[in-house]
């Protein structure tokens, strides 16, 4: 998605304006109910903590607020090119409600979220709506000038902007103001950018939170080390129980065959066939193991083709759209690949969809991946779900994951990982 | 029959040379890297090339790329690609130009010398040899979301699978231990059910099957 509107033909500019107005409108539609509901629920839930109910509801509500904020972070990056870092303290997966509430309320990011909701439902709402208004309000002005002023000004005049419309002359004045406003329309994309900058100003982590950032990094590093260690153990076990054992069996068979060769050629031939089968199976197991560690296509072709190859193996019609002009670092590629793989597996298993769209592109130092399906929706990031694991894994690379999955679908999972291509 | 062989692992290269020579192939060159392969293909005009996907110096898909380039310069140049793993993505790229004379097999298939040599001969003759694993993936995928395949009987599916690997009716009959006439009947049923034109060209037949399986992606 290109938000660069400074250059290009009138056609692309008109498109950019319409896009900005449309996006602003969509945002405004979502912001008001979203921010009001989130903010009200949070306040009610927090105030219910003393009587205990809040302990159960608060973590849930705050998680929703975070999801809402994360979704807006993704939109800000995709629609406005504004990066808003997110730095929530991780909540232990198996924590009890009290600890969860305690950790979440102790996180300065929570309070920043709540502050942001207030700004979002007022100034945020207005700035999001402005591009749309700028596009529609002039039309009203022209209608007023064309004759609409008659019915409108019947009872003591009508205000169009700061023009008081009482007769044809002042109506023409309104028309002139509309023309001036119309001339400002090309500013619509920049006005939308103002909205995103406002969001960043309130929602973005401040300088004082650098310490927090270090803490999050320490946490994700520990996650990464743990995952790597667990992975190594799994590989060791799989090799030991699988391929290695088969090769040993094969060696023993070959020994027996050597002995039987003259005595019982028929039996020897039978064992030979068995040894060959063992070798084929050992190879198949090793292949699977390699795929689990680092898929060969990923090594050979990079992320784009690896995801394409992955899509070919899915039982659902899957469209893959790749716009990457280079390759990311191997660890990032690998993390992104397994994240996509997990999300796709989820979609196939739980969504009930019959089509999936995967979109990969890179811009402004961000690898962005979205996986959309036309299923029944209702996916959540909650603890224990596959998406939670993906989120943690991406966290190691400062990546974020956002899920939009209203009941009834569709589900859209968006992932962003900061990285450079080479 | 003159073969150019590209494989970077010494043991495997040596084994392949011995295996092919034992079956009366002449090894025109046995090379171990992409650039050497490109040179050998351009200068030696072999009857068939047996190529490993992953070759030095990049150790990525250098071998496959090299083979595809050579086929662009000399359309129809028979190439049998061997790999430690098989991917539909690569199978598609090999089949894309529709000229036949391609094969794509898992390295394990070398274990069955007869079948492997048969595949090399088939590819050299302009036919195709697709790994059963590729075909299996395609069939499972299609079976999951497509109607026409559902109309095939299990036996017909079996025949289709062997057909898609590039085997002739005679070979399929041999494999399934039935008469060639029975297979001919199965194939015409399959073509009818899938709405494919009947053609006696083996290679076209496989391409048509694969194109059908590929259809609608």
Task: Provide a brief overview of the structure.
Chain A: Pfam families: HATPase_c, HisKA_3, Sensor. Chain A: Its EC number is 2.7.13.3. The complex is a heterodimer of chains A (422) and B (217). In chain A, 67% of the residues lie in helices and 10% in strands.
Note down, in words, how this protein is organized.
The complex is a heterodimer of chains A (422) and B (217). Chain A has helices at residues 10-47, 53-80, 97-105, 108-152, 168-184, 188-203, 210-241, 243-263, 265-293, 296-301, 303-313, 330-351, 386-395, and strands at 158-160, 163-165, 317-323, 355-363, 366-373, 400-404, 411-418. Chain A folds into 3 domains: 10-203, no CATH class; 207-293; 299-418, 2-Layer Sandwich (Heat Shock Protein 90), CATH 3.30.565.10. The two termini of chain A are 21 Å apart. With 422 residues, chain A is α+β, with helices and mostly antiparallel strands. Chain A is built from 13 helices and 7 strands. Helix content of chain A is 67%, strand content 10%. Chain B is of the alpha/beta class and 217 residues long. Chain B is built from 11 helices and 6 strands. A 6-stranded parallel β-sheet of chain B has the order 2-1-3-4-5-6, with helices on both faces. In chain B, helix 6 (132-145) packs across helix 8 (154-165). The longest helix of chain B has 15 residues, at 180-194. The relative contact order of chain B is 0.10. The mean pLDDT of chain B is 87.
